[in-house]
Write a structure and sequence with these properties.
With about 260 residues, this protein is α+β, with helices and mostly antiparallel strands. It folds into 2 domains: about 1-150, no CATH class; about 155-255, Sandwich (Immunoglobulin-like), CATH 2.60.40. The chain is built from 5 helices and 8 strands. The chain has helices spanning about 5-15, 20-30, 35-55, 65-75, 85-150; strands at about 155-160, 170-175, 180-185, 195-205, 205-215, 220-225, 235-245, 255. A hairpin with a 7-residue loop joins strand 1 and strand 2.
Length: about 260
């Protein structure tokens, strides 16, 4: 490659303002000789840069940015160059700045989209984990209830609805050896958030709380009782309506009795 061909190959980089040092000085000195081929190449490169600038969505540089670009051009000794060339260089650098901002905006949008997708996936995973935990809890309760119902010597006590709940029913299955029980209810009306159902058994004439419970939409409920009195000590099972959280002694209306 001849010296002229090497200089000609450097013209596009010169038009972009990307030359420094010896290469910059060599190209500028060569252009001062009036080389027509290199001037044509410089003009073509500058026009291509203008086309690049026009292809990017207009984004005028701020006064601060323009001043910084002009200082940079002056530093590179382009101040004395042709006015059209300096304008082309500013347009090219502004186009690159616009492209950079556009790229950053696209990247930011993509990051936000990925963040939203990750948040949605995390929310779904948490919901599935909650549902799985609830299902596992229900399976554990059902397994325990099944052991109580099928325990040797298991006893069944039927509770009937009273005047305010004539269609309601209840059953308590008691394991006399483990002294545990499982209680089922059906057709009980829903209560307010300030109320709860409370199960009791009467042992030696004294009411003992067996736990509180709420009903499903169909009026059904299941309650596991960890500890009961001995079978021969229990005279009665009952359900009352009490304040939310339950009470140590029954105070509300009795809705089931057996």
């Amino acid at each position: 490659m001849t010296d002229h061909e090497e200089l000609l190959a450097l013209i596009p980089a010169y038009a972009l303002g990307a030359l420094e040092g010896d290469d910059l000085r060599r190209v500028e000195a060569h252009l001062e000789t009036g080389c027509e081929a290199c001037e044509r190449e410089l003009l073509d490169s500058s026009r291509q840069l203008e086309s690049l600038a026009e292809s990017v969505e207009p984004l005028p540089p701020s006064e601060m940015t323009r001043a910084r670009l002009e200082r940079e051009l002056d530093r590179r000794q382009l101040k004395s160059g042709p006015a059209w060339f300096k304008r082309a260089a500013i347009i090219a650098l502004a186009a690159l700045a616009s492209w950079s901002l556009w790229s950053q905006s696209r990247m930011r949008d993509e990051v936000e989209r990925q963040s939203r997708a990750r948040a949605t996936a995390t929310e779904r995973l948490e919901r599935v984990e909650r549902e799985l935990e609830q299902a596992q809890t229900m399976l554990t309760r059902l397994a325990k209830a099944g052991r109580i119902v099928s325990a040797p010597g298991s006893r069944n006590v039927v509770l009937a609805g009273l005047e305010s709940t004539p269609t309601a029913q209840g059953q308590a299955f008691i394991d006399p050896i483990a002294r545990s029980a499982v209680f089922y209810a059906t057709n009980l009306p829903a209560l307010t958030t300030e109320e709860t159902y409370q199960l009791w058994f009467i042992a030696d004439g004294q009411p003992v709380s067996a736990g509180i419970f709420d009903v499903e939409e169909d009026g059904s409920a299941m309650l596991l009782v960890d500890r009961t009195a001995a079978l021969d000590e229990i005279q009665l099972w009952a359900v009352t309506i009490e304040p939310a959280g339950g009470v140590p002694q029954p105070t509300g209306e009795m809705v089931l009795k057996g």
